[in-house]
Amino acid sequence: MNGTIRSLAFAENGQQLLSGGGDGQVYHWDLRTRTCMHKGVDEGCINSTALCTSPSGTHFAAGSDSGIVNIYNREEFLGGKRKPVRTIENLTTKVDFMRFNHDSQY
Questions:
Q1: Could you report the per-residue pLDDT of 61-81, keeping only the tens digit for each?
Q2: Could you tell me which of 43, 46, 39 has the C-alpha nearest to residue 19?
Q3: What is the DSSP string of 9-34?
Q4: Are 46 and 38 in contact, with CB atoms under 8 Å apart?
Q5: pTM for this entry
Q6: Does residue 20 contact residue 42 with C-beta atoms inside 8 Å?
Q7: Buried b (16+ CB within 10 A) or exposed e, 58-84
Q8: CB of 66 within 8 A of CB of 24?
């Protein structure tokens, strides 16, 4: 990872880790092998400030300094499709913390 880590979120029952930072990339790490499995650009992100994964593990959300939150299908993102399934743009301050609803609605 190049740059500073600003956000982390566990996935796959703690076997994987997502990280984001000042470079606008989201990194997927395999904690068993200690390697980066995948990295991709968070669309429209300048500085990543928050990451979270859904309880089901199918989605993750990435928040930024600009107040934009992008929600991605995790498998599609890992497969190369880097378009968010939903974008929330009406926030006016940076995103510090996010959490999915218990039933993974977004």
A1: 999 988 899 999 999 998 888
A2: 39
A3: EEETTTTEEEEEETTSEEEEEETTTT
A4: no
A5: 0.86
A6: yes
A7: ebbbbbbebebbbbbbbeebeeeeeeb
A8: no
